[in-house]
Amino acid sequence: MTYDIHKVFEISEQITRLGSVDEVVEGLSRLLKRTVKSRWAAVYLIDKEQRNFLPARISGIPRNQTHLFQNLALNPGEIPFLKKMLDKKQHLIITGSKRLAFLTPELGKQLQHLTLMVLPMVVRNQVIGAVVVSRSTAYPPFSEKEIAVVRETVAHSALAISHIRLFDESLDMAVEMGRRIDIILTLDEINKAISSSLSPTTIIETAMEHIERIIQCEFVAVLSEEKGELTVLAARGKDITVPPLIVPGKAISGSSLAQEVLGTWKSSYVPTLSAIPNPGPVDEALALAGIQSAMAIPLISKEAIRGVLLLGDTTAGQFGKEDAFTIEKIAGQMAVALENARHFQEMRSLFISTVSSLANAIDAKSPWTKGHSERVMEISATIARELGLPDEHVERVRLCGLLHDIGKIGIIEALLEKPALLSEDEFPPMKLHPEKGVAILSPIEQLHDVLPGILNHHERIDGTGYPRGIKGDGIPLDARIVAVADSFDAMVSERPYKAALTPYQAIRELEQEAGTHYDARVVACFCDHLRRKLGPEH
Ligand SMILES: [Fe+2]
Description:
Hypothetical protein af1432; Beta-Lactamase; alpha+beta
């Protein structure tokens, strides 16, 4: 015996405190090499999938011979002594190379004059690996005591490896669980954000933001389907320039990953775009912009494909099955929300066209006011845009302009058709039209936000208007805009009792009454716009 037993146990104890499987395997092979008089000591670990023993570490072998072991996986099905060891879970002593016929002739030769001690690494009755300790046949065989020490050391190490693996697996599991919880929370957040909006733009923007949060991607595009054709609805890139072929409004032509998904209705991903032979123009443009990984997910709702979600990243092989699974959930929510928004928009436009035909009918009662509501609608929208209001607000002001006089439906026709200014007696009933308009439209929930604009479009900044006589900023902005648009159209239109003003005369009239009748900022903004549009007055 060439070792101090206490030293062996001390080192063995140290091994069990190591942090990684590699360290334990290395410590074990070194310890075995040093403690018993051995030529070399090798540690094998079982590969769970292939049921093979794979070489993990070998100590004591000359460098020029390591290749003999390095790539040699040991298959218990082919090696009877390994099979026996696995079944009995006990050590074996093998002398000479007679029983090692499976080895390469070169290795067989190396082992010819060696005695091998082969020990299973057993944890909870499961073999997780094996240890082979070799000794020259010139020395005495392994003693019972030596075998006992080696067995003890191997058992300790096997336990250490098992603990490390268990710890690593738990850690991986915890990280994976955390990731999944994050995905579920994000999906829930997306669901809430998407379902609470009926604006396709908001739905798409929200979904795009969340997708970028949930998986690493530098390019996101939403493509809509119509009659088998794909059109870009939205596209954005992070640190890459979106190719001109994939900007909103562009139709996607030629073969592409997105087009393929449109046909299969199944998610698809490409690990390296630049490696596709003969790519279509869109995939080629993305590859040129630096995108390597691409993934396309179908947007399916009510058993129909509504479009495709296209993701890209500059790193190759970025997307996998799991990403597709997660993004499919978002795509499903998006498709349903977009479909709902489309229905809502259809119903809204159907409703607006019905209401505008009513407004037109009122205008048509007199040849002098024909087309007035539609013109006020356009002018109001122009002013709103010039004031820099957001799209949704511009849309609301546009509706206010169209419907501002809808209350005239309830006014005696004779008054509307009268080809002269109204008399003192006739004016009060006519002044009721803003309130009548509100009464007509208030049952329609979707139009509640246009009611203040309609109710107050005859109010004046100085408080002398009707129906309530409110003043200044107390008058809703929508109403202040419609008031200017309404007056301008009336000024430049011919009436039986007055000639039409030129646009420049109307500008001067508006400016004269800015701050008293009209909102000064609205007038200034509109008149600036008109002057730019009309050019100098001749
Ligand atoms: Fe009016």
